[in-house]
Write a structure and sequence with these properties.
0% of the residues lie in helices and 56% in strands. The N and C termini lie far apart (40 Å). The chain is built from no helices and eleven strands. The radius of gyration is 13 Å and the shape is globular. By secondary structure, it is mostly beta strands.
């Protein structure tokens, strides 16, 4: 039973910072490429950041320089550090286990809400 559980969302002011976490179980975490997606009401879900099993990272252009994805394999946890937050970052942030090796996987967490507002 694969399970991804996000935490750390909340209300933050523009320009502030927040770190969301995703704890994984039921998978061999260290073998998976992981990603953070977000979805705002009425909008498509978009990939925000991804990290491979080896630690390589990629980001959507809108968050480059502001967000950092990282992983702690000993804790089976992937993080998204969000700095210089903007109102347009407001969304439900979802954790995804995307790839193991060359096999595409689609395990999802239930999401954690991040609201950026003054």
């Amino acid at each position: 039973q694969a399970q991804l559980v996000e935490s750390g969302g909340g209300l933050v002011q523009p320009g502030g910072s927040l770190r969301v976490s995703c704890a994984a179980s039921g998978i061999i975490f260290r073998l998976y490429a992981m990603g953070w997606y977000r979805q705002a009401p009425g909008k498509q879900r978009e990939l925000v950041a991804a990290i491979t099993s080896g630690g390589s990272t990629n980001y959507v252009d809108s968050v480059k320089g502001r967000f950092t994805i990282s992983r702690d394999n000993a804790k089976n946890t992937v993080y998204l550090q969000m700095n210089s937050l903007k109102p347009e970052d407001t969304a439900v942030y979802y954790c995804n286990a995307g790839w193991v090796g060359t096999q595409k996987i689609d395990y999802w967490g239930k999401g954690t809400l991040v609201t950026v507002s003054s």
